[in-house]
Amino acid sequence: MSVMDGQRGRRRSNPPPRTASRGYPPPLTDETPVYVISVAAQLSGLHPQTLRQYDRLGLVSPDRTAGRGRRYSARDIDLLRTVQHLSQAEGINLAGIKRIIELENQVAALQSRVAELSAAVEGAASAIQQREAAVHASYRRDLVPYQEVQQTSALVVWRPKRSSEQ
């Protein structure tokens, strides 16, 4: 919709739309629930009643709106396709598919945890190296590192100077 300008008959364009940099609209990701059940059914090639059954069984759990309507994300659609493939092409029953999905989620969580711990170890190693460098930098430069003396059979005799020789 355009707005009338101060001059008669001239229209000026609408203000520029809000962009994602301002936070509106929120950025869409694979996790963003945007598809209603009918669209999700079309995208996955399944019947809407099959999607409801998968939801009841806990295979694919879409987000819910305030009115309890299902909203599927792109990741949910991919999961629906995977469930369909495992069921029809591989002949795996729904309980087996649920277990496969649980194990895949567990593997993903463990891989994420390993990445976190690896980052923590790298950070700790870096901190240790910095502390070690600080300790080495604090050494007094007038100290001489200890070196082992080789054992010899030479005999050294010490005679104190007499007070008359000074």
Provide a compact summary of the structure.
This protein is mainly alpha-helical and 166 residues long.
Q: What brief labels describe this structure?
A:
166 residues, two-stranded antiparallel sheet, 4 helices, disordered N terminus
Shape: elongated
Largest sheet: 2 strands, antiparallel
Q: What is the subunit organization of this protein?
A: single chain
As a percent range, the share of strand residues is under 5%
**Which ranges are low-confidence, i.e. pLDDT below 50, for 5 or more consecutive residues?**
1-12
The average pLDDT value, as a whole number, equals 83
Strand order of the largest sheet: 1-2
Helix content: 40-55%
Determine the N-to-C terminus distance.
112 Å
Query: What's the SSE pattern?
Result: EEHHEEHH
Number of helices: 4
Write down how many β-strands occur, each being a DSSP E stretch of 2 or more residues. 4
Structural class: mainly alpha
Question: Could you tell me the radius of gyration in angstroms?
Answer: 37 Å
Helices and strands in order:
Blueprint: E1 3-4, E2 11-12, H1 37-44, H2 48-57, E3 63-64, E4 70-71, H3 74-88, H4 94-137
Antiparallel strand pairs: 1-2, 3-4
Describe the protein:
46% of the residues lie in helices and 5% in strands. The chain is mainly alpha-helical. The strands form 2 sheets. The chain has a two-stranded antiparallel ribbon. A two-stranded antiparallel sheet has the order 3-4. α1 packs across α3 (74-88). The longest helix has 44 residues, at 94-137. The N and C termini lie far apart (112 Å).
